[in-house]
Design brief:
Blueprint: E1 6-14, H1 21-29, E2 36-40, E3 44-49, H2 61-66, H3 69-85, E4 97-103, H4 108-119, H5 132-136, H6 140-149, E5 155-159, H7 164-177, E6 183-190, H8 196-204, E7 230-231, E8 233-241, H9 242-247, E9 254-263, H10 273-287, E10 296-299, H11 305-319, E11 326-329, H12 331-334, H13 341-349, H14 352-355, E12 357-358, E13 375-376, E14 382-383, E15 389-396, E16 400-407
Helix pairs in contact: 3-6, 7-13, 10-11
Length: about 400
């Protein structure tokens, strides 16, 4: 396989606490969470992370009506990423552009809505929308992006549960290395808060967060954590081979230096720390780095009792003896953005290459002793002498694990 170096040249996002990287980062450093209460069908009041971007910035009202929330988030993020990349998009050969969008699940929102709608008409399927099929096919979010941006290269959505955001980036890197494409859009999106089913399922598992103050409901590593805050969001990157990026004079945000994915093969929901540790070590090996070379590890931790403990066990096994590695968590601010989580959480840390700050984990009032691992940054940001490498973990149901190593670009 080609050994092309792959770099990030653009980034677009929408998160519950920001619609630009600058806004998102400022809120992380200033400890601002915007988790709120919403009303959802059959469930009543739940905590959720809600995005407040302008969908009409890059879409028409007609395309919004025909399409999906996940597709709209993807379109917003893709357009913002392309703009930030500085590429001459009008003259780009769009047959050489690939779109790889990670998702957890897709189509649940639309299916629930259509069933609810026809219930008002005695379940008469004549009232079922003819837009349903293109809305619910698995490739929808990526496909909507290609239609919006007139991209004729390959596209697909990657179903990798909550590891999907990382998986979208990894797939983009691999396709660039294989020279199947020349320019990639990769990352993840999530529309999960618009389906009652996800809330109901987590509640039945006793894994849905509850707190008097919604901004404190997402509390990884805290002794009193009681579950997940479901969020929507998206983050897509533009990625290129280094030689191509340099040839056009692109501003390089970071380099993707290594990655790994594996499977637990043990349980539907409960993580396997041994397999997670194996995934982390493989990513380090592929990046040709040691644990001491990593300054920041962004954890996947979702605020579930056992999940946080299992991941901390894995991180401790890999990074526990490193004095130069600091550990943080982004879900404490924005909740769990599911398919977008890995990509969004990476974005929240990338500015560390410039400002040398490690954003904290918030809402940890009493640290669970079983989560007391390494240099966990709690409460306040930490300033370092340098940040050269960020390690991003994302793990998902059915035991899918992903780890991504992103480094400060050095020619």
């Amino acid at each position: 396989m080609s050994q092309h170096r792959i770099v990030i040249t653009g980034l677009g996002l929408t998160a519950p606490n920001g619609n630009t990287l600058e806004e998102f980062r400022a809120n992380l450093l200033n400890k601002v969470s915007t988790i709120q209460n919403i009303e959802t069908r059959y469930m009543g009041t739940v905590h959720a992370g809600v995005c407040d971007y302008d969908p009409l910035k890059h879409q028409t009202k007609k395309s919004l009506r025909i399409g999906t929330r996940a597709g709209s988030i993807g379109i917003y993020c893709a357009n913002e990423a392309i703009e930030s990349s500085g590429i001459d998009w009008e003259n780009m050969d769009k047959s050489r552009v690939g779109v790889y969008v990670g998702t957890t699940e897709h189509g649940n929102v639309e299916t629930e809505n259509e069933i609810f709608n026809i219930s008002k008409y005695d379940y008469d399927t004549r009232f079922w929308t003819h837009h349903h099929n293109p809305r619910t096919v698995a490739n929808n979010p990526a496909g909507e992006i290609t239609i919006n941006l007139n991209i004729t290269g390959p596209h697909y959505a990657i179903g990798a549960a909550c590891a999907a955001g990382n998986a979208g980036v990894i797939q983009a890197c691999q396709m660039l290395q294989l020279e199947e494409i020349d320019f990639a859009i990769g990352g993840g999106v999530s529309e999960s808060i618009h389906t009652f089913g996800i809330f109901a399922a987590f509640k039945s598992q006793n894994a849905l967060a509850q707190h008097d103050d919604p901004t404190k409901a997402s509390r990884p590593f805290d002794m009193n954590r009681n579950g997940i805050v479901v969020s929507e969001g998206g983050c897509l990157y533009t990625l290129e081979r280094l030689d191509d990026a340099k040839a056009r004079g692109a501003t390089i945000i970071a380099e993707v230096s290594g990655w790994a994915m594996n499977s637990d093969a043990t349980d539907y929901v409960l993580p396997n720390p041994e397999r997670q540790a194996q995934c982390m070590r493989l990513a380090l090996k592929r990046a040709k780095m040691n644990v001491e070379d990593i300054q920041i590890v962004n954890t996947h931790a979702t605020s579930t009792k056992q999940g946080d403990i299992q991941e901390c066990e894995a991180i401790g096994a890999v990074f526990g003896k490193s004095d130069s590695t600091y550990i943080n968590n982004t879900k404490s601010f924005i909740g769990h953005a599911m398919g977008a989580a890995g990509a969004l959480e990476l974005a929240g840390n990338i500015p560390s290459f410039r400002d040398k700050m490690v954003h904290p984990t918030i809402n940890v009032d009493e640290l669970d002793p079983q989560c007391n691992v390494g240099k966990l940054v709690i409460g306040e940001p930490v300033e370092l002498d340098r940040v050269d490498a960020i390690f991003n973990n994302s793990f998902g149901m059915l035991g899918i694990n992903s780890s991504l190593v992103v480094t400060r670009f050095q020619d």
